[in-house]
Amino acid sequence: MSNEEKSIPLEDLDISDLGLHDSMIQEGLFLGHLRTPEVQSIVQQSGLLDELKGRGYSEFSLSIEVESLQDNRIHICIPEGEDLFFLRLHLGSFSLAGPNPARLISIDWFQTQNPRMAHKRLFPGQKYPGLGFGILTAFRSLLSLLADKTHAAGIITVPEYFHDAVLFNRYMKCRFLNPEKAADFENLRIHGNVRSISAAIQEGRMRKRSGEIYAWRHGEMVHFRPDYLNAMVFDDTYHRLYRQHLDRKRYVLVHSDTSHDSISGEAP
Q: Is the residue at 2 inside a domain?
């Protein structure tokens, strides 16, 4: 990812942010709650800075920015100006299930990158390779600490790419709110490793059985901290619809290593 705006079709989204109406929210504070030293302390507690040092980065700068209540940023940059870590997020109120909306941290952009590593085998959208699993573990800890401090019930995000969805599912335990999209995600995962599937989708090589090119379906992914929210949202109806849309033969992958299109439903 880069820190430019995502291009997410509105018709792909299933819910909207209702906005926060909370007397405790203050303009100018990070997520409406935290002063800069508090955020700096949370970043330190998360282990993120130690992980970067472990990756060989001894010099970097941490910047906390509050553009607005809807735009809060954490930058960690090296002296050359490249980002090692970039996060843009806001605190929102989302109508999901039951009479009351859920207070969630919305991850609007996330990037880790290793600008000093050779550029090989990049995922779609990457300028440099990532920084590894340890950084993702620290990122998960960072989000948990921020949720504690802001009394958020969880996190929500809209992955721009297939591999982003895998990352948030694997490391943040996020699930698609829409059961059909959750099933579609699983229908894609059987076609090989994450990088090859994501590349095939971006290059128009993932096809429906009819031959029509598959386009990545954006959708909200969430992780709830309270059990009652998980029970309300991921209920029996959700799981029934999810099972109805599971179909291992829904998509076929067109391999790029031949001079002509060869269609296969097997993993490469």
A: no
Distance CA 132, CA 120 (A): 15
d(CA 107, CA 91): 9
Same domain? For 107 and 58 the reply is yes
DSSP string, 186-219: HHHHTTS-HHHHHHHHHTT-EEETTSPBP-----
Cα 107 to Cα 221: distance, rounded to the nearest angstrom: 10
CA–CA separation, 77 and 128 (whole Å)? 14
On whether the pTM is more than 0.85, the answer is yes
Boundaries of domain holding 199: 178-217+226-268
55-97 pLDDT, tens digit each:
999 999 999 999 999 999 999 999 998 999 999 999 998 887 6
Number of domains in the chain: 2
Angle between helices 133-150 and 162-171 (to 10 degrees): 70
